[in-house]
Design goal:
Structural class of chain A: mainly beta
Strand content of chain B: over 45%
Helix content of chain A: under 10%
Strand content of chain A: over 45%
Largest interface: A-B, 25 and 28 residues
Largest sheet of chain A: 6 strands, mixed
Shape of chain A: globular
Number of helices of chain A: 0
Distance between the termini of chain B: 37 Å
Oligomer: heterodimer
Chain lengths: 113, 113
């Protein structure tokens, strides 16, 4: 079946540091890939998406590129802010699983001044 | 455009009781999916409804059930509650095409005493 593996947290960074959160996946076919963010006490917000190989999703300074050869979708941001502190989830859908989202375990990010 | 609305936000029940959670999707969305989020198991897919029919189902016992109405609103029911059912229950809506982004509500926090 489909699965998503993302790096363990928590990740603690200083403001303006570079962020990378690794995500790899296992799926048959060609899934769509997503990053969601969850702030305390809230649901998940879609951060960015990519639907085919070599697509780059981007939003609010965050970027991720769909790499089929390495089955990866790493999240990056050049300069994090305190307001980016949240839990980040990598997810996939499609690829025989229909509309069902398969999530990674989540990575907690804390950004300090 | 209104987002996904889940009611109630918080619920406290005792073991053996049953509970019904409600989800109103984004206008025009025909697919509603439900997920359970716990610290131990992370985000797990419960089921998806599309045009009033269950289209996909996760690996949960029959105590978990759902339905969808003609206006796409959905309800989830859990019977004979157990302590392990304590979780954040998230609803997500989309147009229904596999691979499309899903948009989440803020969830219902269910606590079992």
């Amino acid at each position: 079946g489909n699965s998503v593996t993302q790096m363990e947290g928590p990740v603690t960074l200083s403001e303006e540091a570079f962020l990378t959160i690794n995500c790899t996946y296992t799926a048959t076919g060609y899934p769509s890939l997503f990053w969601y963010v969850q702030y305390p006490g809230e649901g998940l917000q879609l951060l960015l998406k990519a639907t085919k190989a070599d697509d780059k999703g981007s939003n609010k300074g965050f970027e991720a590129t769909y790499r089929k050869e390495t089955t990866s979708f790493h999240l990056e941001k050049g300069s994090v802010q305190v307001s980016d502190s949240a839990v980040y989830f990598c997810a996939l859908s499609g690829a025989g699983g229909g509309n069902k989202l398969t999530f990674g375990t989540g990575t907690q990010l804390k950004v300090e001044l | 455009k209104a987002g996904v609305t889940q009611t109630p936000r918080y619920l406290i029940k005792t073991r053996g009781q049953q509970v019904t959670l409600s989800c109103s999707p984004i206008s025009g969305h025909r697919s509603v999916s439900w997920y359970q989020q716990t610290p131990g198991q992370g985000l797990q897919f419960l089921f998806e409804y599309f045009s009033e029919t269950q289209r996909n189902k996760g690996n949960f016992p029959g105590r978990f059930s759902g339905r969808q109405f003609s206006n796409s609103r959905s309800e989830m029911n859990v019977s004979t509650l157990e302590l392990g059912d304590s979780a954040l229950y998230l609803c997500a809506s989309s147009g229904g095409t596999p691979g499309q982004p899903q948009h989440f509500g803020d969830g219902t926090r269910l606590s079992i005493l």
